[in-house]
Amino acid sequence: MPMDGGIGASTKRREDVRFLTGAGNYTDDINVNGQAYVAFLRSDVAHGKIKSVDTSDAAGMPGVIRIFTGADFEGIGGLPCGWQVTDRHGEPMQEPAHPVLAQGKVRHVGDPIAAVVAETLEQAKDAAEAIEVDLEELPAVVDMKAALVDGAVKVHDDLTSNLCYDWGFVEENRDAVDQAIKSAAHVTTLELRNQRLVANPMEPRVAIGDFNRATGESTLYTTSQNPHVIRLLMGAFVLGIPEHKLRVVAPDVGGGFGSKIFHYAEEAFCTFAAKAINRPVKWTASRSEAFLSDAQGRDHVTKIELALDADNNFTAIRTETYANMGAYLSTFAPSVPTWLHGTLMAGNYKTPVIYVNVKAVFTNTVPVDAYRGAGRPEATFQLERVIDKAARELGVDPIALRRQNFVTEFPYATPVAVEYDTGDYNGTMDALERMIDRDGFAARRAASEAKGKLRGLGINCYIEACGIAPSQLVGQLGARAGLYESATVRVNATGGIVVMTGSHSHGQGHETTFPQVIAEMIGIDASMVEIEHGDTQNTPMGMGTYGSRSIAVGGSAMVRAAEKIIAKAKKIAAHLMEAAEADVELKDGQFSVAGTDKSVAWGDVCLAAYVPHNYPLEEIEPGLEETAFYDPSNFTYPAGAYSCEVEVDPETGKVEICSFAAADDFGNIINPMIVDGQVHGGIGQGIGQALLENCVYDDQGQLLSASFMDYAMPRADDVPFYEVDHSSRTPCTHNPLGVKGCGEAGAIGSPPSVVNAVIDALQSGGHDVDHIDMPVSPSRVWAAMNNA
Amino acid sequence: MYAFDFERPSTVADAVAALSAEDAQALSGGQTLIPTLKQRLASPSKLVSLGGIAELQGITSDGDAVTIGAGTTHAAVAADGSIPALSALAGNIGDPAVRNRGTIGGSLANNDPAACYPSAALGLGATIVTNAREIVADDFFQGLFTTALDEGEIITAVRFPKPQAANYQKFEQPASRFALVGVFVAKGADGVRVAVTGASEDGVFRWSEAEAALGSNFSAGALDGMAPPADGMISDLHGSAAYRANLVGVMTRRAVAAAG
């Protein structure tokens, strides 16, 4: 039985009170006195040479304060890329310039050409429409393979081609993999596309720049998952503002899913323009702008080969992937198809040799970067689909084939550079099998067939590397940043605690879970602990929230800081009780001396720290505030087994999800209810990818799915009630909480089981279909069934 | 949104007068027009709201026919039940917000090729009543977003004959949940009518082969294996022309089976 409000308790989310009663403080809720509004004139063609931009008519329109074009940003840094990938030949990736406003060329629909700052938003929009742009339209590069042929039109004229990098991993394994595939008893091959997605957080992006002429300080309010990262990138690489003159505030943020990690042009623009015109400048994206300017996700085209020996042991995996970067390199784009994808190609299986080739390609489309799971869903999807296909080809049970090849001994060093510290893949598969009544499936299938439907059962496993990440390792892999996390624990004089964390909550529930940890450690009520995050002015330098890292890395930093607090508090308590420090125990918010009836309350010790009349000033300083930075020694490796059961209507091709079960191993869990919610949300997004969502450009680079009229987001009635099980737990071996992180698992683990189930259903109906690309929409299922 | 003048007359006559201004636009429930304005895709000089006109409201049932005021919301039609198939159709348009604002007159005048109502009007053989005349549904719909309405002409009511049996089956486009294909089947005194929305490049249409087959045998079996030709069907992100043609056959059979 967990302590009330402590670790393991399903405490209700305290932040929901303000979110659900309209009392949240989102960036668009912030209005700075005297603010002006910006409207961006965005390119409506995918590729073109800017011959001239005439702002003379627009500049004279009512309310216009100033119009900016690319020329205003000459000599100012472009948007930086935070990760450099080294290619197969030891050469750095090709890295194009990314100006804040387009210079010389536009490279995707939505690329900002000019920005009008005016007294009102409507005036700014009116003037933006009056700007005359003389644009010479160029052929658009949209298809990745076509982009790489000799003589293809180049997205960036100063690069040698549209190839960002050609990455081999692990290059030394290449020949061994080729050999293993040549000599295999069986090779299963699958070609697929992991389609492009639009993140679509409920809250579109917002940026407000403010410049204080008196102090020379700039403030940026922005919808960010990592305000410190934005401060560093924008200050150091774009605008040349030192950290002590730049404050970045990311208040309540309405969902990010990765798309709010990156540093965007609009943030730099508003900060720059506010100083230039000496007025605060506000931008709020419309949903249409979000479709054209938020970094998008996925978009891989892959061929995977799985080699097996005569006993169905996996002997080698070889993959070739084309990864779409879009028109520019978004902040962490190069890392997604490489270090967040190639390193996971071993999955849950002991395949001895693996070779991953990734060609990253520039196209005239919106930039692509991390989206919930980021690289790991792409790895999981191809691997779990090809295993399913192999099982079918070999006529073996898909669960048995997986179990036979599971990694069972830990730590396990994969052939793709990472070491799994712990896990129990049979344990999660057992948990899954307990949920899904596999024995009853034949009867359920018969019942479906009796009403003219086809029924399928799909299974898959997943593993992910999260708790991102050891700084030294990612530094070797090309990261231009550290990936530690920080926390300051400030104990107030009357015992209440404020934790200032570099993690950022934009839906994850940190304000509830982080206090649970402190409450457990000290033995006080969680209501005595408050979490502050999102403002660089009052939080220590932290790297923010993504990669399921907050509790594993940020939580660990908080534990380290709290340990320092407790150690100091024990010194004070020892002094107050006139006892030896080593004899002091802390339990239920009381310090006591073992074997005596001496005790002193938490609050009395805190008061003594700030009113140090009776205090060991010669040994320790007054006050009770500690900061810790925590850099993990390894990734964490959540893993699990998922299943999906579907019914397919053979007349229309419509797929209905009948049930979905998820068994995850997240190690220790702070708040089971919040973990369930994270898994539910992740599966919802995974089902969205599997069945509904599709970001599509035509061959001119026009976005066809540019609104919710054509981009299908999952709705409540598209998803089933989920069955989730988190009872199989192998605590992480290298962080103090033994936690692994749960934010991305659902999105990583769910798409393959949905598609596996659909294929199983079609096969049961006698249809020789072994793959359908996502989204497995009604029209695609019908076309596959009818060879149409 | 661009600036515009706004009038809210209380009679049809005043509305017609207000609409005589150049580039004036009638506003009913606004479920298409307002988003269009917000995206700056339309710039009317004046919006003439029809929301304050009492004579456009209400549903009356008189023996053989049901007359619905043009300003009646989808929610009101859904709650009415005089023609169950029509109410069921109205109750599945959009979401509750759309159903509580959107009106039958606005939907028919807009004639979106994927809207539900045009198939009901055409399938039931309705008569569209305007401030100037009466137009039978067969003459009213003239292609994508195109109707027989003249400039400044306002729909005041829609008169539906009560069918002996009717049903509407919608296969939803996954994103918008408009009809990827919607089929309204009605059996009445003058025979069987099958009206299809969502599918054709020419907007709502009657599937005459199906009507003929059902005329002699009103059963799903009468349409076994039948589908209209794929030529002229819409082909887009959400489905090919061949897929839509297939869905017309499937949805028609299901509508007939459900109509009983």
From TrEMBL, chain A:
Q: Which UniProt keywords apply?
A: Molybdenum, Oxidoreductase
The family database entries (Pfam families) matched by this protein are listed as:
Ald_Xan_dh_C, MoCoBD_1, MoCoBD_2
The residues covered by the Aldehyde oxidase/xanthine dehydrogenase a/b hammerhead domain are 21-139
Keyword Oxidoreductase assigned: yes
Gene3D superfamilies hit by this protein: Aldehyde oxidase/xanthine dehydrogenase, a/b hammerhead, Aldehyde oxidase/xanthine dehydrogenase, molybdopterin binding domain
Q: Which domain of life is it from?
A: Bacteria
What are the protein's GO molecular function terms? iron ion binding; oxidoreductase activity
Task: Give the matching InterPro entries.
Answer: Ald_Oxase/Xan_DH_a/b (IPR000674), Ald_Oxase/Xan_DH_a/b_sf (IPR036856), Ald_Oxase/xanthine_DH-like (IPR016208), AldOxase/xan_DH_MoCoBD1 (IPR008274), AldOxase/xan_DH_MoCoBD2 (IPR046867), AldOxase/xan_DH_Mopterin-bd_sf (IPR037165)
Presence of the UniProt keyword Cell membrane in the record: no
Q: Which SMART domains match?
A: Ald_Xan_dh_C
Name of the molecule in the record: Xanthine dehydrogenase family protein molybdopterin-binding subunit
What species is this protein from?
Answer: Marimonas arenosa
TrEMBL record, chain B:
Q: Which UniProt keywords apply?
A: FAD, Flavoprotein, Oxidoreductase
Membrane spanning residue stretches: none
Query: Where are the annotated coiled coils located?
Result: none
Instruction: Return the Gene3D superfamilies for the record.
Output: 3.30.465.10, CO dehydrogenase flavoprotein, C-terminal domain, Uridine Diphospho-n-acetylenolpyruvylglucosamine Reductase, domain 2
Q: Which SMART domains match?
A: CO_deh_flav_C
The identity of this protein, by name, is: Xanthine dehydrogenase family protein subunit M
- Tell me the ranges covered by the FAD-binding PCMH-type domain, including all copies: 1-165
A single GO molecular-function term is: oxidoreductase activity
Q: Does the keyword tRNA processing apply?
A: no
